[in-house]
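Q&A log
Question type: sequence-to-structure
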Amino acid sequence: MSTALSRRGFLGLVGAAGAAGAAGSFGLAGCGRDTTGQTAQLLTSLGPTPRPYAVPLPVPAVKKPLRSDATTDYYEIVQRVADVEILPGLRTPILGYDGTFPGPTLVSRSGRRTVVRHRNTLPVPTVVHLHGGHTPPDHDGYPVDLLLPAGGWNPGTGHGHGAGHGASPTTGSMAGDVRKGVRDYAYPFHQRAATLWYHDHRMDFTGAQVYRGLAGFHLVHDDEEEALPLPSGERDVPLMICDRAFEEDGAFRYPALDRELRSTPGVTSAYMEGVLGDVILVNGAPWPVMEVAAARYRFRILNASNARRYRLALDPGPREGAPFVQIGGDGGLLEHPLDQDTIVAAPAERFDVVVDFSAYRPGTLVTMVNQLGSGPTARVMRFRVTGRVKDDSAIPARLARIEKLDPAKAVRTREWRFSRGDVHGEKGWTINGRPFDARRMDARPRLGDIEIWRFQADLHHPVHVHLDPFQVVRRGNRGPGRFDAGWKDTVDLRPTEYVDVAVRFTDYTGPYLLHCHNLEHEDMAMMAAFATT
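Response status: OK
Response body:
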């Protein structure tokens, strides 16, 4: 994400080695090892990778409010550096919400206000975005609305972002709503039950800071969802899936130009397409194993990777019935359940699925695999089926009522082209041929209007829209795809494809974002701002 990018070399900043890598880094990354179905490059770990299925699946702790009143629940999260054990026997330094990775899970009620006070004790600025939240602009996590470290901040010298777009947040003169130490984020939650997540959204450094640990779940419940006999309690399990590479000593390995994340944004040229790691983590554990009863489980699958796409499958599949029954997506429950043989998840997408382990004999080992991976990244996690238990859960034929946005009532169509392009004299990532400028509004949709937004791609781009979800109308000259049902806030846009979505913004006026959720693309200018009016 860059207001203006006058620095030398998204492709050549690191000198001759960077320039040498530039020519190859902007092709389709489908022919290299472990890059099938990806626009990204593989970064390998320097030490040996851990043995799969050797550690139990951790479940992030649920955060308790500091206090509550008649309308609001109040929380405090401390952003801090911590050393945690991810690879057995090694310590990994992280940037963590409450010092954990993933951060604590927050649970809220639709219609009830939540206020989260974030205290930044990290050595770098942060911005918190509640992904999927229907949130006023002042609390949405606009990338220049920085929360500076409580201990002070002096970014030092580095490549700036001048070129007539106002001051860069990396140079010390801020254009956004900048606070020091503490910021309260208020979420009204006038929205339906859904699996949301919160993560860092700092200008130019989102990829590196999410990679180092700044991500967590935020679940929203409502009466409609709780009236259904879906699996609940210990059988309602969030799964944050991501990939990472590691240094020999256990530290995260990431090709940042500025390892201190202070003043020079971006990654080395070979990884401009995106960063793939060779270790798959689920809830922060490498290839974990989970003991499950022979019963139905609800899994809230989140792809929290910077750039990796997954095609998830179960091996072996059940003797009868679908491996996955999808009951929800980004924006909450679907209207009807969908049988899915596989789940294809692009970065930031969520899939709410039910797996019925009563279809397996006790003692069976069931592996969740990634059909877009190879070698170690073809594995995700394992389930060990234990004994049979009483199971009162069920999957109703009708899950929820979803208002259909009628494309015929759209007042206009807007086109958003996601492609490689010129970024202030250098090769980079653009929308409609332009790099991001935090002060330029590229659209001004009116509240209540239905619009058709057409997203077009050169390569793989997971497109995310802030403030309100949308409904996929068509992919090319066909209808929605297998994984496009219900309300979406992120859509998997594939090479040379266009996708039409119907969107309607409500309640809040102000600046918001749409962008590619390949975080390396996002950090390198593939964002656009729009203002609701």
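Response note: The chain is about 5% helix and 40% strand.
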